[in-house]
Amino acid sequence: MSKGIAGQRRGEWLELMPGKLNPPEHGGRYEAALVWLERELVFPAKLLRTLDAEGGIKLAGDRLRLRLFPPENSQYPPAFTLSESVSSGRPDSSCPPVEILYEDDFCLVVHKPAGVKVHPDGESREPTLANLVSAIYSQRGEPVAPEHIHRLDEFTSGPVLYGKNAFARLKLDAAMARKEIGRVYVALVEGVVDPSLRVIDEPIGRDRHHASRRRVSPRGKNAVTRVELVETFPRASLVRVTLETGRTHQIRVHMSHAGHPLIGDALYGGSTRLLSHQALHGESLAFPHPLTGETVLVEDPWPDHWKPLRAKLLEP
To answer: What are the Pseudouridine synthase RsuA/RluA-like domain coordinates in residue numbering (predicted)?
Structure first.
């Protein structure tokens, strides 16, 4: 896809100026516009057909308009508060605020605190990130229904990427499948990590003895984790971790397998003496913008509760 493609939103429509359109041998400028969209925007074919059939593509002079922002209703009810006051819509300090790290007409990146699930699972009535994100647009009065592109474990904090319309979701999902969305994590682990530990390349599969646990298994799926030692403490280490694959609990499984379970990660052998959940945080997220193709880098500062935790780790 060409870099630097720009557009201007006008209500429900995105206006583009593709320049001179050379009509194909069979067809006119409209058909040339479709070809341009497929070539330059790598426009999802199914969505392009839908827009074409529903009158969502207009060509006037040198301007090409696409109806990419129709009103949408979220499948997740907005959570302004905890369950007992959601229906009233009254703000309540017990419901964590949503920190927006990045937003434009196509994408949203928000910080997910540890202890908040990305979406409902039918087991808990606590507000999830999906409910909190839905509340953002309900409060604004905007008919937008963002959907997450990737997930984080309940007790892992960090940035979560959302697509705000069908075009963005399809483009970001495709980028995810091509491993073009980069995620970098930091973790506090037990023991002093040897600087020579750079790559953990071990397949990960289900643990048949525990429903929610994974383990290194010859029959598992390929999993590659890159490790960088950042800081050492008397009995612990701070590592920066990059994923080449996205297996469930990958960092937790690989670091435990290497003899360095995450602090607080009881499921994989970590001690909860200093922290009640795994010390794992998404430090940054990089993704190709759905419209321009240019890389967007979003950083998420380390959690505040890591400051006293690191101070304790410095104690002999």
So the answer is: 108-257
Q: What is d(CA 43, CA 57) in angstroms, rounded to the nearest whole number?
A: 13
pLDDT, one tens digit per residue, over 135-145 is 999 999 999 99
Q: Which two tokens stand for residue 101?
A: 């790290």
**Does 153 participate in catalysis according to the annotation?**
yes
C-alpha dihedral sign at 21, 26, 31, 34: negative
Q: What is the pTM of this model?
A: 0.90
Tokens of 131: 């409910």
- Please tell me the total number of residues recorded for the chain in this structure: 316
Contact 157, 146 (CB under 8 A): no
- Given its phi and psi angles, is residue 116 left (phi above 0), alpha (psi -120 to 50 degrees) or beta? beta
Question: How far is Cα 262 from Cα 188, in angstroms, rounded to an integer?
Answer: 6
Listed residue (288, 257, 254, 127) closest to 185, CA to CA: 254
Q: What is the pLDDT of residues 123-164, one digit of tens each?
A: 777 889 999 999 999 999 999 999 999 999 999 999 999 999
The residues facing 10 across adjacent strands are 13
| Cβ neighbour number for residue 136 with a 10 Å cutoff | 18
CA dist 289 and 285 (Å) reads: 12
